[in-house]
Amino acid sequence: MTIKIEELFTISDAQVADLLTLMQELSQNTCVDAQMLRHVAAQPSSHLFAMTEADGKVVGTATLCVFDSPTGRKAHVEDVVVLSSFRGQGLGRQLMEHLIDYARRELVSVDMYLTSKPSRVAANALYRALGFTPKETNVYKMSL
Fold first, then answer.
1. Structure confidence at residue 73 (pLDDT)
2. Closest Cα to residue 116, out of 100, 94, 92, 143?
3. Which phi-psi region, left, alpha or beta, contains residue 72 (left: φ > 0; alpha: ψ -120 to 50)?
């Protein structure tokens, strides 16, 4: 199987369909649409990566959101998901290693953050194996 990872700056209709399927696998409560996906891809502070098969089908994705704050440059990993029929093949690791390599090469000095539900046992084990360490903090959300 030939897999390629690339940053998307524009998104075709076929890629939109594939990404929407992935977002549903990530969370069935998500409200993502084509316009939102295309907006994210076009933003200079968001780096939307797609993992594709040779025929162009998107089988995995992750987004790296970069911002500067008074305490330094930060990159937050968001929406990491591999199509369920492709899991267990090390593709999640490959996708995360690509993001880490990109951040080292392009962002240089940056702190990378991510959150993951405790129930995602395999994902949490992967993040630890890649060198992420748990940060003692509370995560709060307010939807406006």
1. 94
2. 92
3. left
Give the up-direction half-sphere exposure of residue 90: CA atoms within 13 A in the CB hemisphere.
5
Beta sheet of 111-114, edge-to-edge order: 3-8, 46-53, 58-69, 72-82, 111-114
* Residue 108 DSSP class: -
pTM for the full model?
0.93
Sorting pLDDT into bands at 50, 70 and 90, what band is 30?
confident
CA distance 10 to 38: 6
User: DSSP label at 10?
Assistant: S
Cα-Cα-Cα-Cα torsion 27, 13, 78, 102, nearest 10 degrees, comes to 150
Q: What's the DSSP call for residue 74?
A: E
Distance CA 41, CA 69 (A): 22
Quote the Cα angle for 96-88-124, to 5°. Answer: 50
